[in-house]
Amino acid sequence: MQISHQKVVTLTYKLTDHTTKEHIEETTHENALTFLYGVGGMIPEFEEKLAGKSAGEHFDFHILAANAYGEQDPQQIAMLPANIFHNEDGKFDDKMFQVGSIVPMSDNEGNQLRGRILEISDEAIKMDFNHPLAGTDLHFSGTILEVRNAEEEELAHGHAHGPHGHQH
Ligand SMILES: [Zn+2]
């Protein structure tokens, strides 16, 4: 069976930075990726490159940053007043908040976002709200493990079920 719209695909992959060759993440048989193909849950070009492949086939391709998580956007770097990071005692929690820490936050509209701390001073914290992979050209290589038809329920939910999919 070939990968096409509304098939459930299971694969393993290795993701590296296409430019620096740096390792980013890897999935194995134990934590394989299972997803419902063609419903917009994945990077569109990732799906395009996999179209027509069947179980046992390998893949090896890269996706430019602009078509993956986007370029680094300087507008997504913000200075926040340090006192919003103060604990109940009015002190800055320097164990929880360090340069490089990822901090879950929400914006004025209540959207969840994650920021990475770039700089800390007494008055302000400089944070980067870009996706961690913004500006990175992604290189994927891996193997298709399974391609199957989606169940009615999976189509209704818009995601894959099963051992590596949603379990609920
Ligand atoms: Zn579901």
How is the topology of this model organized?
Blueprint: E1 7-17, E2 23-26, E3 33-36, H1 44-50, E4 58-63, E5 77-81, E6 102-106, E7 112-120, E8 124-128, E9 138-149, H2 152-157
Antiparallel strand pairs: 1-2, 1-3, 1-9, 4-9, 5-8, 6-7, 7-8
Bound molecules: zinc ion.
Structural features, described:
The protein has 168 residues and is mainly beta. The chain has two domains: 7-69 and 134-157, Chitinase A, domain 3, CATH 3.10.50; 74-128, Beta Barrel (Thrombin, subunit H). It has two helices and nine strands. Strands 1, 2, 3, 4 and 9 form a five-stranded antiparallel beta sheet that branches. It is elongated and about 60 Å long. 14% of the residues are buried. Residues 157, 159, 161, 166, 168 line the site of zinc ion (ZN).
The tally of strands reads: 9
> Structural class of the secondary elements?
mainly beta
Strand content: 35-45%
Q: What is the average of the pLDDT values?
A: 93
Pattern of helices and strands: EEEHEEEEEEH
State the helix count. Answer: 2
Bound molecules: zinc ion
Largest sheet: 5 strands, antiparallel
Low-confidence segments, given as residue ranges, are: none
Q: Based on the structure given, which CATH architecture of the largest domain is correct?
A: Roll
Rg, alpha carbons: 20 Å
User: Which fold name is given in CATH as the topology of the largest domain?
Assistant: Chitinase A, domain 3
User: Which CATH class of the largest domain?
Assistant: Alpha Beta
Distance between the termini: 27 Å
Q: What is the 3D shape?
A: elongated
Can you give the helix content as a percent range? under 10%
Counting structural domains, the number is: 2
